[in-house]
Amino acid sequence: EDAVVFPVMTQGVISTLNVPVTGAGYLQAWIDFNGDGVFEGSFGENIASDLRDDGTGFDDVAGDGVIQIDVSVPSDATTSTTFARFRYSSEAGLPSPVLPSTARSRITRL
Fold this sequence. Notes:
Elements: E1 14-20, E2 26-31, E3 46-51, E4 66-72, E5 83-89, E6 103-109
Antiparallel strand pairs: 1-4, 2-3, 2-5, 5-6
């Protein structure tokens, strides 16, 4: 399984993540920017909602197995170790804590 490779992420700067995916599905992603151990949508930590490998939005090329996400790193983001969560599923609109059988989920240490 391919992993997301993170570029250097700087407070107040937009960084682009290339997320490898396989097959048709919907990508959900979160980064725990404030380092509190919770992936919260209300604090801008939900960086991807129902993104597809279809060439629309930030995705550059349809069907190439990579979804691009432009991430605006908050100016007050933690500079300590934190985590990101990526979910790729045949189901759209999945919240962070739910893990249905058709979803692939990965938590990555940053």
